[in-house]
Amino acid sequence: MSPLTLAMLFSMISCGLIFSLWPGLDLWVTSQFYDPATGFSGERSAFVIALYRGIPMMSKAIILGLFIAMFAYAFQRGAQGLKRRIQVGYLITALVLGPGLLIDVLLKDFWGRARPAKVAEFGGSAVFTPALVPAKQCDNNCSFVSGHASAGFYAVSLGFLGGAAARRRWTLIGFALGGIAGYGRIAQGGHFLSDVLFSFFATWFAAWFAWVIFRRLGWLTEPTTEKN
């Protein structure tokens, strides 16, 4: 297991312990964006609203772009064409496994965690529950984890097409992009901090799992002599 994978595993376990031992951290962070008289500050921010509306359109553009690329490379012959088809196939697989199945289908629809704006502490009627505790405070499209943030975190998958340095670099880039989207959702009362962080881990490990599969099948190879 590579140093980056170990670091990600350690970070995920650490976050799990922190939010399990101090679940109130989520409430405290969210409270910084909430005023009982005016509601959540993000609902009055043009930048945050633009992010919220723009990210779904960006996600659709990414999906469309990937399938257009796959169609275009289908007509490219030789080893280079095969390489490009495999790379695009990997990106599609990482997208389907992470933001698609794991996040939007499994976690968001079955974890049952109420969004911040719906819990009693912020004017709602639902009960606040810790991040890692399955609940029944929401029927579908729930708070855990953030789908908007995963659209930015998905950039980490690009790193798995390169060597170890590329994976480290794109992990940071993806974290930054998803973090911006996550900030907006926290400011809107749409997600807790833990929803955003675990969205990052879910997206990263889904991309890693897809990469492992493609490596085992011999479809992806390490482009350099760097350690994995």
TrEMBL record:
The chain crosses the membrane at residues 6-29, 50-75, 87-107, 170-186, 192-214. InterPro entries: PAP2/HPO (IPR000326), PAP2/HPO_sf (IPR036938). Pfam families: PAP2. Residues 88-211 form the Phosphatidic acid phosphatase type 2/haloperoxidase domain. It comes from the Bacteria. Keywords: Membrane, Transmembrane, Transmembrane helix. The keyword Transcription does not apply. The keyword Transmembrane helix applies. This is PAP2 family protein. It comes from Parazoarcus communis SWub3 = DSM 12120.
